[in-house]
Amino acid sequence: MSSSYAADLAAILGDPSRVLTHPQVVEQLSRDFYWYSPVLRRQLDGKVGELVVQPLAEKEVVAILRYCHAHDLPVTTRGAGTGNYGQAVPLRGGVVLDLARMDRIESIEPGGVAVCQPGVRLGLLESEARKVGWELRCYPSTLAKATVGGFLGGGSGGIGSVAHGNLRDFDTVRALDVVTMEAEPRTVRHEGQAVHEILHAWGTNGIIVRIWLALAPAIDWAQCAVAFDTFDAAYNFSERIANDPAWTKRLVTTFEWPIPSFFSPIKQYAPEGKALVFFLIAANQLGAFEAAARDAGGQISYSGAYAGLRTRPLLSDYTWNHTTLWAMKTNDAYTYLQCAFDRDKVRDQMRRLKDRFGSEILFHMEFWKGGDGKIVPGAIPVVYYTTEERLNDMIRYCREIGVFVANPHVNYVEGGGRYREDNVQLLAKRRYDPKGLLNPGKMATFEPKSP
Ligand code: FAD
Fold it and tell me: What percent of the chain clears pLDDT 70, i.e. is strictly above it?
């Protein structure tokens, strides 16, 4: 890339310190957590941008996009780079647009809607919201690092989803301001259904610069870990709690042994050979909850107050896609899948997967509320990887027996689980990025307009 691009962009920002060109820095800011996937590792290792630009405000984003459009420069946006599918890895070089410094919370409205810039860390938003009686409806287990914009651009749900659904449900994302990639970039407000044109589009069809995010009333939480002799007993109890609206909960995560043995910092809470369930449950229900767990044959291996992100142990650090990380630390042959089981057939589906793949698949279950208000028995199973063929065989078999798979081993929006069948993300890309300069290569069905 011509060094004149860096000089021009520094002049546009009026601050050369926010245009980074040192190769090691650029390489570091061109990566995310794609290495969770042995398949993506092969495809994406060595892919880097050519320089990084760090805007502080919407008008700077507009000016950067205007310049990049005029010079046909690809732009790959990143928040904190914790995505798992290489969403933030530039495939065609160009500019990495690092939004982590656009990190202002504008307001937390009395009705429970946060208005903020995209680079705000979810953990900060959670603590600021709690100060005024609100909390995030759902968040990924990476909340300490991950940004709100990155969560909307590349994430789906997490802790809290068992009560409030995923990010795309129940009007959690109220509105977005999006900057387009045109000769004269526009800021377009997306409200209501129109937010779905941009959500989980991996920064391919516009840059989110302002967000209105609905919150939930804050609750005093407690953490609890319950061990069971068998996975079946653990699953039955966790499914019951997840489904029963009388329990106020934020997290229900079930692990088959030996997954709990991977959690080395908290091994004292993971009795040898037992399945384990982690809960975040309303503090005022903890006594009754422990009694219910014992009645179901469970042994409480840990229980205690939850006082925010600094709580130790922080059980959520072992849930959602952190579970895979602990598995990979134990043996780097482990990887994962993202599944949704059928509520009525989940036991049969799990049995069939075990019969066919044995210990190549280890069950790590996560529950969330579906858009229809019913609880979905989801899973991020730990998978022992041998070959791509074997992995694809497992994905094929899951689909054959009715288990939905959002494939985390592909690097284009359509291949994952969140592409909209009504093509609204693609249609927005055609309108907002006709040259195809935003995160090029990630929306496979898009064809740039010929000049
Ligand atoms: P990035 O990785 O920087 O970006 C994600 C995507 O969004 C990229 O395509 C990027 O181009 C795009 N993007 C970023 N900002 C913008 C913007 N302002 N406008 C338009 N596009 C933008 N995900 C979950 O959903 N739930 C989980 O529980 C979860 N657990 C995880 C656990 C671990 C250990 C890891 C490594 C990942 C996990 N993830 C999870 C994935 C990831 O952490 C989250 O999705 C996170 O919210 C991404 O935020 P980020 O700021 O790191 O985004």
Answer: 99
Distance of CA 167 to the CA centre of its chain: 10
Residues with CB under 6 A from ligand 1: 32-33, 77-84, 87-88, 99, 118, 140-142, 146-147, 149-151, 153-158, 202-203, 207-208, 320-322, 325, 439
Helices (H), 338-448: 346-357, 388-400, 424-432
Positions of E strands within 206-325: 207-217, 221-228, 249-255, 275-282, 299-305
Rg (CA), the chain: 22
Question: Is it the case that residue 449 has pLDDT exceeding 90?
Answer: no
Alpha carbon of 98 to ligand 1 centroid (Å): 13
The alpha carbon dihedral of 96, 48, 415, 426 has a sign of positive
Q: Give the Cα separation of 140 and 161 in Å (integer).
A: 10
- C-alpha dist (Å) from residue 296 to 232, 318, 319, 343: 11, 23, 22, 21
Q: Whose CA is nearest to atom 23 of ligand 1?
A: 155
pLDDT at res. 175: 98
Omega before residue 74 within 30° of 0, cis = no
Prediction pTM value:
0.97
For the chain, the residue count is 451
Per the listing, tokens 């106020």 go with 248
Residue 255 has pLDDT above 90, yes or no: yes
* Tokens matching residue 115: 């208005």
Q: Which of 54, 77, 207 is the pocket-test mutation for ligand 1 (most atoms within 8 Å of CB)?
A: 77
**Cα of 244 from ligand 1 centre, angstroms:** 30
Residue 335 token pair: 């990887």
> Distance between CA 145 and CA 122 in Å, rounded?
7
**Distances, alpha carbon 154 to alpha carbons 85, 150, 158, in Å:** 9, 6, 13
Q: How many CB atoms lie within 10 A of CB 447?
A: 7
Query: Is 423 buried (19+), middle (13-18) or exposed (0-12) by CB count in 10 A?
Result: middle
pLDDT of residue 1: 57
Helix spans in 309-415 (H): 321-330, 346-357, 388-400
